């Protein structure tokens, strides 16, 4: 991807256009830029009022603003065993932010929050189901069953 053209070139082209020297198409060929670029910067200047490029912040914008993120942190301080669905409902009703479950998951990871299960809690009292008797038989036992 090419580098952005400098602000000085933008200002010179727009200054010449404002002076009425030539059309944008003629100025584009004189300054060795594309006609599309000349039209784009002229439209941007009309929209923003400035000839310079606006600073660009790379990356995606967060789905939940700073206030919603702080509110989610406060909810987890009060009730650390919230589920994703409960967070989703609270965000929609109290903060007015609609997020999908994966987006909420990513938000919690970004905030360093964890869901319900914790390694510090004792293991479950519920025993795992017993493996079926056919699986638990040794190889020799299975062979003897087949031969009979």
Question: Biggest β-sheet: count, sense, barrel?
Answer: none
> Mean pLDDT, rounded to whole units?
79
Structural class: mainly alpha
Number of strands: 0
- Measured as a percent range, the helix fraction is 55-70%
Q: Point out poorly predicted stretches.
A: none
- The best one-word shape is elongated
End-to-end C-alpha gap: 75 Å
- Helix-strand pattern: HHHHHHHH
CA radius of gyration: 32 Å
- What assembly state would you assign to the polypeptide chains in this entry? single chain
Number of helices: 8
Sheet-strand content, in percent, reads under 5%
Report on the architecture of this protein:
It is a single chain. With 148 residues, the protein is an all-alpha fold. Among the domains are: 7-48; 66-111, no CATH class. It has helices at 7-18, 24-30, 35-48, 66-78, 84-95, 101-111, 133-136, 139-147. Helix 2 (24-30) crosses helix 3 (35-48). The longest helix has 14 residues, at 35-48. The chain is elongated. The N and C termini lie far apart (75 Å). The relative contact order is 0.07.
